[in-house]
Amino acid sequence: MAIGGKVTGPAHGNMIIGSHRMRPFAMRFPPMIFVIPALMVALLMLAPVVYLIVRATDSGSAIPDTLIRARTFVVIRNTALLAASVAVSASLIAVPLAWLTTGTNLPNQRFWTVVAALPLVIPSYVGALTIVAAMGPRGIFQGWLEGPFGIERLPSIYGFFGSWWALTLFSYPYVYLGVQAAFWGIDPALEEAARSLGLGPFQSFFRVMIPQLRPAIAAGALLSALYTVSDFGVVSLMRFDVFTRAIYVQYQSSFDRTAAASLALVLVAFTIMILALEWWVRGRARQYRVATGAARTVRRVDLGRWKWLGVGYCAIIFVSSVVLPLLVLIYWMMRGTSTGEAVGRLWGQAVNSASVSLAAGVVTVALALPTAVLSVRYRNRFTTLLERQTYLGYALPGVAIALAFVYIGARYVPSLYQTIWLLLIGYAVRFLPQALGAERVSLLQISPRVEEASRTLGENVLGTLRRVTLHLARPGLVAGFSLVALTVMKELPVTMMLAPIEFETLATGIWQATQTGAYGRAAAPALILIAVSAIPSFLLSRRGLDQAG
Amino acid sequence: MIQRPASGDRSNLRALLCLNIQKRFGDVPVVQDLSLSVTTGQIMALLGSSGCGKTTTLRMIAGLETIDGGCIEVDGDLVAGAGRHDPPERRRIGMVFQDYALFPHLSVARNVAFGLGRGGDARRRVDESLELVGLGGFGDRMPQDLSGGQQQRVALARALAPKPRILLMDEPFSNLDPELRISVRGEVRDILRDAGATAVLVTHDQEEALAWPTRLP
Q1: Stated pTM of the model
Q2: What strands, in cross-sheet order, belong to the sheet with B28-39?
Q3: Which of A116, A285, A473, B77 could bond to A442 as cystine, CB 3.0-4.6 Å?
Q4: Of B53, B64, B89, the CB nearest to A17
Q5: In whole angstroms, how large is the CA radius of gyration of chain A?
Q6: Residues A226, A87: Cα–Cα separation, whole Å
Q7: Residue B149 CB: number of other CB atoms within 10 A?
Q8: Rounded to 5 degrees, what are φ and ψ at B41?
Q9: What's A11's DSSP letter?
Q10: H or E, element range at A532
């Protein structure tokens, strides 16, 4: 077995033993140069939760007080009611839409497929603003009705109804995208089997397809519930007392940190519960899929005469979730006075938004990197735990993160308080999972052999990262950066609570203008935000169309 | 098949010594009490069925895996064993990977220059190494634009450029089609002889292992 030199071993002078299981780069310990920063990031991610717990349990008597108060029960009831209603109504909108765009011969199907996901580019508080600006007191509708009919008051849009309406319209794409993907994954043989057993097209749809889509629908509904529970902008604009708004009001109106912290803690428990449910449902969804097999997709149902009803349905949703909000904003922008002062202020907001988003993108991508490298290249129980705990960023609503860092900053690191740095930390904690996910995807595609080659050529761990890994992982770094930067630009509660006073961004500018009913002043920054958010969707959909055509 | 380099005074030196090295992945022993010794300038082929731990052995020698027992000496220096584990970048052991593992973001010349410092010396050494593997003038190409055999030779040039103490080759010819394999094998053998390299190569192909000694001058 060996030629030249001497080789000795036990069995038959043979070195053969055992099975061959290659593990990438199985060093005994992951390098400290990654472990230490990853641990620091982990502590940063844990800080808000730990702080909230400490704060809430600090003065033992205060929690029961806050939590038992009747208003707290109202808040819990409102939150649960809103989350459940939005989950149901978003699913009711999204499932037919997904079926129409993937499972039928709807005319202009590609157009509707792109358009159905478009509400995602409208930040929900901007959507809510358009509803208020159109339907609220002093809104467009009232203005029209006042002249001829002298109507000065409309039934109120505020409260549950407005919140439910806005959150449904702007969160249904979460259900839509999941269900659409599930539609593509269904094995057409199942439907054919149902048809061969004598079921008609509609019967087989309800008895075979819907049950298969059920996990995807449930997961999507839970995502929109999570979105609802974490949302701050819509419920605050609509003045509906749910957790996020109650926390903010409590934070603003008193110096009693314990009350706000215990409310935030209950909110976090809510979101963690929803996330846990969602994970469970998705785990079951995976078991449902038996075979992925060929690239055959479900036979499309011929809509026949019902075709135009389908188009009408898609159009109604498109118009109410995208076209009308845009028209309302344009209307208010035209009415708004465009004085030099206003333009200057808008410019300042745009510059602040852009710079803080870019900085947050860079910081978040950098902070996520050590954890990404560890979890991909040095996978073990410890590094997996490090990776998983960053998903706290998903579970923590912006209001909770912001509240915790306001207090931590003010109390322990006053030098950071009221600076951009604290704001960037808040963003990083909130959006780290997005950057981490993108980086992991890229790192997983790099062969560990290439990094090992660099090591055998005399380059150390850090040099290999710099000269090889970072170059090859560039797509993931860019994707993570763009994702974070774009989301940060739209972010509201963290920006509002952690940004230094006088630091006005597009998002906070919209917020302030809306608070004073100055819709004209809110319209331009809102349109800018929508335009910027639309860039990636536009690029993606064009690429999708290119591939399809 | 023991090939002696021109400089006879180094020929009796032991370039590599592995003594009772062991490796377990979890509870599964992969390599048990393996010993081998290679003299400077010698080329050794390790033959064995796939999955028998040959690759792991090379990786332990390179420092890409830790050893669970025994020790490894290079040029008489302990590099692994007795609680010591020199990282790969400090061992000066070159490796040609089975899939070559060329840096896809670097040109051929920059691949070869990777393990060298900066400066005119480095550039001369890159040209020299590419010349040695018969790829002079290919420096500006990207690895993806080369054939499998050419990529293999770039990997060899890259590993040889920093003048490693030992060159390790993991199934170096398995990705080539049979005709190409024979010609490339001959070329590599000549290159190694010209470079005076000490080498350990791993193969599961008996014919290939035998080709090494019989074809030597």
Answers
A1: 0.84
A2: A6-8, B28-39, B14-25, B69-74, B77-81, B84-85
A3: A473
A4: B53
A5: 27
A6: 9
A7: 17
A8: 85, -5
A9: G
A10: helix A519-548
- In sequence order, the 6+-apart residues with CB closer than 8 A to the CB of B74 are B15, B16, B91, B92, B93, B165, B166
User: Using an 8 Å Cβ cutoff, are B123 and B94 in contact?
Assistant: no
A 10 A CB-CB count for B6 gives 10
Angle at A409 between CA A403 and CA A415, to 5 degrees: 155
Residue A60, pLDDT above cutoff 70: no
d(CA A82, CA A394): 20
User: Per DSSP, what are the bridge partners of residue B38?
Assistant: B16
The reply to whether A466 touches chain B by the CB within 8 Å rule is: no
Q: What is the pLDDT of residues A422-455, one digit of tens each?
A: 999 999 999 999 999 999 999 999 999 999 999 9
Strand pairing report for B28-39 and B77-81: unpaired
* Separation of alpha carbons A95 and A179, rounded Å: 7
Judge: A14–B209 Cβ closer than 8 Å, yes or no.
no
User: Exposed, middle or buried, A32 (CB in 10 Å: 0-12/13-18/19+)?
Assistant: exposed
Task: State pLDDT tens for residues A361-404.
Answer: 999 999 999 999 999 999 888 999 999 889 888 889 999 999 99
CA distance A442 to chain B (A): 14
- Which pLDDT value is given to residue B3? 37
Q: pLDDT tens across A460-477, in order?
A: 999 999 999 999 999 999
Answer yes or no: is pLDDT of A183 > 90.
no
Secondary structure (3-state) at B84: strand
Which of A15-29, A497-511, A530-544 has the highest average model confidence (pLDDT)? A497-511
- Percent of chain A as helix, strand, coil, to the nearest 5: 75, 0, 20
CA separation for the pair A209, B207 (Å, rounded): 57
Q: Is A304 on the interface with B (CB under 8 A)?
A: no
Tokens 């963690």 — which residue? A272
- Indicate the residue of B57, B95, B99 with minimum beta-carbon distance to A15: B57
**Helix or strand holding residue A360 (H, E):** helix A340-377
Facing A456 at nearest CB: one of B47, B95, B103: B95
Label residue A304 exposed, middle or buried (CB < 10 Å: 0-12, 13-18, 19+): exposed
- For residue A83, give the amino acid letter: A
Q: What angle do CA A25, A27, A33 make, to 5 degrees?
A: 100
Q: Which residue has the tokens 């470079």?
A: B195
* Residue from the list A1, A25, A458 with its beta carbon closest to the beta carbon of B162: A458
> Are residues A5 and B102, on separate chains, in Cβ contact within 8 Å?
no
* ipTM exceeding 0.85, yes/no: yes
Rounded CA gap, A132 and A140, in Å? Answer: 9
* Closest listed residue to residue B114, CA positions, set B164, B64, B40, B148: B164
